[in-house]
Each structure stands twice: as structure tokens, then as C-alpha cells.
Design goal:
It is a single chain. The protein is an alpha+beta fold. The chain has 2 domains: about 10-130, Fumarylacetoacetase, N-terminal domain (SH3 type barrels), CATH 2.30.30; about 140-440, Fumarylacetoacetate hydrolase, domain 2. Helix content is about 20%, strand content about 25%. Strands 6, 7, 8, 13, 14, 16, 17 and 22 form an 8-stranded mixed β-sheet that branches. A 5-stranded antiparallel β-sheet has the order 4-3-2-1-5. The longest helix is centred in the N-terminal third of the chain and has 15 residues, at about 90-105. It is globular and about 75 Å long. The model has no long low-confidence stretch (mean pLDDT about 95). Bound molecules: manganese (II) ion.
Length: about 450
């Protein structure tokens, strides 16, 4: 039922351009991208495809008959108010929808003057609408697949054994909280819970607001078709179960996390909010930006057979350049630009999306369309390019100096964290993920 990682088609052609002028040379949303999202306008919620600074209202496109070649189920999905039905479609139907929208927006498509006016009426300015969460998320699971993050955090907490013995055998994860997922732009409230300051030798913990609030730069994997309870997804089919990708900020309260996490893992330190970029960059759009999975050394263990597939090994990885920026209240008041905190690359994920999906279901756990997987924080091997402040400041011991003279160990009220992602490859048009933003409020 699912397809393997596909080859490029005419929708990836670098010579393709759109009659939507804002999309020509657009850094994030040229016609080769066509990410899916959900927007609200005048109290009505509809799904859309981004093109340049605009978007195509897919419900209006379906009502106007532009999607008539699609199977009935796919036309229904285009009229929905979340992307769950679109995610549930077989990969081939999602690919077909992409081809039709690409043709609708293409400058070279066979459309007369009247047809062009009808097409233009489907467009909305992105800045004039509100973007919502892409899907109703039934379940959210957060992995720990960024190996440099796992190593750096391990060095802070357990220098004698930074990586747990299971790390290179299975994709480690915990089950997160779906109710606190929010779209980019939602302010994050500084959470409170129990904190115990071990350095002060306090006999008892205290209930207080976190003083060690952090972000985590992660990728979101949006699950497409699901699996039935007690049925697992074979590694060779797993790529077809990922509908698309986004940016995810796993806000973390390090002092709360440190006291509560043993033995069962993060709880209040992570569950107060998680931010998501609103546009889902589809698996189809990502085809040119697949990469080999992260290389192993000779002494690294071979994964068990259920996690191994030759195609996944050669092109099951994804190559996205990730950047994290910080805009403090003082910078905002000074009229300064956000400053770059770090640059990362998703090729630093030890496990591929297919391996995460396969391991998640190997015991019979059913995934559902619109479920969300976080990859875990993505950091680079050396230097300061880490995906969270905990690593960049070595647990708060080495605060970072910002260009305007401010210093940060952890986030302060008024700080806005901005995450961006971009894919580049010679011979292809670059595509972007848009932004995942959030401002800390006290
Ligand atoms: Mn995380």
C-alpha cells in the first residue's frame, strides 16, 4: 500500500516557475515546495498550499472544480478543516494532489485568460490570515535521535557513560503531550513545578517558576497513513507513512526536568508547551533533499534486521539546514535584528524517520494520521552549534554573550526564539520551512 522513497518528477523541475509573482525566487515557498497548512479567515477554517507570500485556498479550489481529477476521497480531504484526512490518503493520492496544484500554479500551464483570473481568486495573502496547527494530533512522541545532543547532555549529567548502552541499538523516545501543542507565534508561559536546588543542599524541594527555561530545535515528522493495533510497519514501507516535516520547539524547564526525571523521564519539565511551524513540507517536496543516513564507525553496532533496509541506509536521511535566532526584549526596543544562536543540520540524526516509525510500531503500537513525532534536539558535533541552551552554556556554567552586550544562560521573559529550516542541493531550487516562533512571557 505504501510507496518507497520516490524519484523526482516534473514538480521538482528547477525551470518550473509560477505566475504568482511573489513565489519567483522566494526563499521558502517557490513552486517546487508547495507545503500544506491550515488557516483561519473570518472565523472559517480551511486547508491551503503555500506559494510565495500567498496561499491557495484548497476548499475554494475543490469547489471551483480544479481538483476534479482527484479520487473522491482526496477531494473530500481538500475540503476538510485539518490535514488529518490528507495525511490519511495513500502516498500516491498526495502525490497526485501536489501535481495538480503545481499545474494550477505553473506559469506554463495551459490556461486561458479567464481561467487565470479564476485561479487568482483562490489566493490569499499569508500575512492577512491566521495559521493554525496543521492537524488534530492524537499522540505526540519525542525521540532522542540527535546523537551529538545525546552525547553533550550525557557529558553534563553522566560523564562516565554519556551514551546509554541502548542508544545505538534503538531509537530512544518518550511519549509526549498532545494537548499543549501550539502553532508558531503562541507565547510560552514560564511554567512552575517542583524544583530542588541540590547545590544549595536544600532539604526539601520548592514549588516555583522555572529559572532555567530552554528551547530545543527539533524536526517534526507528521504521520500519514497509520497502522492497526498489533500490526507493525515494515522498515521498507515506513517512508510512505510520513506525510511531511516541520519545525518543532520542545520548550524545556531544565531545573524542573532535573528533579523529576528519574526514574520515568520528563514530565512537567516538558509538557507545558511545544511549538510547531504551521506549514507541512511534504515528503514529496523533500525527495531531492534525501541523504544517506548518518555514517557509522566500524565499532558501532549493526542495527537488528527489522531496523535495516538498504534504501533507507542510502537515502532514508533528510538534509535540512536549521538555524535558531534569539530576539530579546532589549534588542526589540533597540530596533535590532534577531541574532543567530546556532546552525545545525538534520544529517546529525542517528536514526532515520523510517527507523523511528518502524521501531515505534514494532511492538504493535498503532500510529494514526496526524500523529506527531519529534526527532529530538539536533546539535552539531563540535563547537557552539547546539540546538538548546543547556548544551551551549554547559548547563548554565558558561553563559553566552549576545551582540548587544546581553548575556544568557537560559531564556528570560521577553525573549523570542525563532527557528528556520532550509533545504539546498545543486541542481534543485531551494525550499524552506517558514518559521517556528515563540516569545517567553512571565
Ligand atoms: Mn526534546
Amino acid at each position: 500500500m505504501s510507496k518507497r522513497i520516490d524519484a523526482c518528477d516534473q514538480t521538482h523541475d528547477p525551470v518550473l516557475s509560477s505566475w504568482v509573482e511573489s513565489s519567483v525566487g522566494h526563499g521558502a515557498f517557490p513552486i517546487q515546495n508547495l507545503p500544506m497548512g491550515v488557516f483561519s479567515e473570518d472565523g472559517r477554517t480551511r486547508i491551503a498550499v503555500a506559494i510565495g507570500d500567498e496561499l491557495v485556498d484548497l476548499r475554494a479550489a475543490a469547489d471551483a472544480g480544479f481538483l476534479a481529477q482527484l479520487p473522491e476521497r482526496a477531494q473530500q480531504a481538500a475540503r476538510a478543516t485539518t490535514l488529518n484526512d490528507w495525511m490519511a490518503l495513500p502516498a500516491s493520492a498526495r502525490t497526485q494532489l501536489r501535481a495538480i496544484v503545481s499545474d494550477l500554479l505553473s506559469a506554463s500551464s495551459e490556461a486561458g485568460h479567464g481561467a487565470r483570473a479564476a485561479r487568482a481568486s483562490l489566493l490569499r495573502q499569508q500575512e492577512k490570515v491566521e495559521m493554525l496547527l496543521p492537524a488534530e494530533v492524537g499522540d505526540y512522541t519525542d525521540f532522542y535521535a540527535g546523537i551529538h545532543h545525546a552525547m553533550n547532555c550525557g557529558m553534563i549529567f553522566r560523564p562516565e557513560q554519556p551514551l546509554q548502552p541502548n542508544y545505538k541499538h534503538l531509537p530512544v523516545a518518550y511519549h509526549g503531550r498532545a494537548s499543549t501543542l501550539r502553532p508558531s507565534g503562541t507565547p510560552v508561559r514560564r511554567p512552575r513545578s517542583q524544583v530542588r536546588d541540590e547545590s544549595a543542599h536544600e532539604p526539601r524541594p520548592r514549588l516555583q517558576h522555572t529559572s532555567r527555561l530552554d528551547y530545543e530545535m527539533e524536526l517534526a515528522l507528521w504521520i500519514g497513513p497509520g497502522n492497526d493495533l498489533a500490526q507493525s510497519i515494515d522498515i521498507r514501507d515506513a517512508a510512505g507513512h510520513v506525510a511531511g516535516y516541520g519545525l518543532l520547539n520542545d520548550w524545556s524547564a531544565r531545573d524542573i526536568q532535573a528533579w523529576e526525571s528519574l526514574p520515568l523521564g520528563p514530565f512537567q519539565g516538558k509538557n507545558f508547551m511545544t511549538s510547531l511551524s504551521p506549514w507541512v513540507v511534504t515528503s514529496d517536496a523533500m525527495v531531492p533533499f534525501r541523504s544517506p543516513r548518518m555514517p557509522r564507525d566500524a565499532q558501532d553496532p549493526r542495527p537488528l534486521a527489522y531496523l535495516h533496509d538498504d534504501e533507507d541506509e542510502s537515502r532514508g536521511g533528510i538534509d535540512i539546514a536549521l538555524r535558531v535566532y534569539l530576539l530579546t526584549r532589549a534588542m526589540r526596543e533597540q530596533g535590532a535584528e534577531a541574532c543567530l544562536l546556532s546552525e545545525g543540520r538534520s544529517t546529525a540524526l542517528w536514526w532515520t524517520p523510517a527507523q523511528m516509525v518502524t521501531h515505534h510500531t514494532v511492538g504493535g503500537c498503532n500510529l494514526r494520521p496526524g500523529d506527531l513525532l519529534g526527532t529530538g534536539t539536533i546539535s552539531m558535533a563540535q563547537g557552539k552549534d547546539c540546538g538548546c541552551l543547556l548544551e551551549m552554556t554547559e548547563g548554565g556554567r558558561r553563559p553566552i554573550h549576545l551582540p548587544n552586550g546581553e548575556v544568557r544562560a537560559f531564556l528570560e521573559d521577553g525573549d523570542e526564539v525563532v527557528m528556520r529550516g532550509e533545504c539546498r542541493r545543486d541542481g534543485f531550487v531551494s525550499i524552506g520551512f517558514g518559521e517556528c516562533r515563540g516569545t517567553v512571557v512571565g
